[in-house]
Amino acid sequence: MRAVVLLSGGLDSSVLLYETRDSWREAIALSVFYGQRHYREVNAAEKIAGALRVPFRRVNLDDLRPLLHGSALTDSSVPVPDGHYQEESMRATVVPARNLLLLSVAAAVAVAEGAEEVAYAAHAGDHAVYPDCRPSFIEAVGLVLRLCDYRPVLLRTPFRDWRKQDIVRRGADLGVPFDLTWSCYRGGELHCGTCGTCVERREAFELAGVPDPTRYQERKE
Amino acid sequence: MRAVVLLSGGLDSSVLLYETRDSWREAIALSVFYGQRHYREVNAAEKIAGALRVPFRRVNLDDLRPLLHGSALTDSSVPVPDGHYQEESMRATVVPARNLLLLSVAAAVAVAEGAEEVAYAAHAGDHAVYPDCRPSFIEAVGLVLRLCDYRPVLLRTPFRDWRKQDIVRRGADLGVPFDLTWSCYRGGELHCGTCGTCVERREAFELAGVPDPTRYQERKE
Question: What is the pTM of this model?
């Protein structure tokens, strides 16, 4: 079984890559640059794939950036909000139809590479703010991938009912090099420690009872 | 009502653009370059949008080309087959998960531009050879677009049950400048007249009883 793993370079997808290998699948790691200001995550992805000796593919969709205006992740005129992921303000970090785009690219690569699966690290914590992480979306896109080419592409989302701390715990068991992963939306030298994804990252390590190797710019109050 | 119209620059999507305007919608034409060797179609698309004074957006996904190997449309080592569209040999012209990619880009643009609809010119003649034109795929992708962002994106496929000659007839009624459209997969100076899409184009004009303004390289035997 071969699987194309959507690897952002963040916590969840890095654990997914290790989990994919652990489940005896041959993995191809795929990172997509869509104009996100935290480009560092794509470099992180490459390092993680390298650590696991998994083939790494990078796709540049930067040309989409001017069309996908209005998100704090791709439009430098929109500030990245501080705060907790679940808050309304986090809507600013939604990139139009992003996961559908990423999954489409992954499906195309899977067909071209003869892989049977696409793996994607949506998890339960994402549902509230991101429509394209919800179970209804995952189910619908799973059907589309089965129909989009001659051979069905299967969508694998083993973390769909997990909380982020469950993913961190699993990652610790699998020996994921957490220090290589990148979450921060601001994409500075260090993780800022205050944007939604940094707040969630910190919390997940705490709740999982796993030491957090991340150096944050802002210490916790 | 605003609609993002996927405009390849071929017959079907050009008629769709005119039909969209005729149905009192505000249209945005969207062309995607995905490494197809018949790049001429993107230039044709721009001309057609210009003729109708519709805003034109072009997205370059050329970076995908090396990943989407194996199709005659994107891989110059694979010859474009001659013959009829319905034949098995036409499988060589399938680009992995292409329409899913195009529709995902269109959905993202629709969300970013505040458009309610994506319009796409799948028609009944395409079903046999192309999995991503079949009614089951269209239905599934329609559901995905409704779920991929906060606001549902509606998928409009008015030609889904039409034959190509029906589209030509409708285009003639709407005054579509057929001479500006480009179909040929070979992408030479003139339409080759023998590849699947040229054969189908010729036939559709004949069956519709509409004069064909196209200059073909190969005259019909």
Answer: 0.87
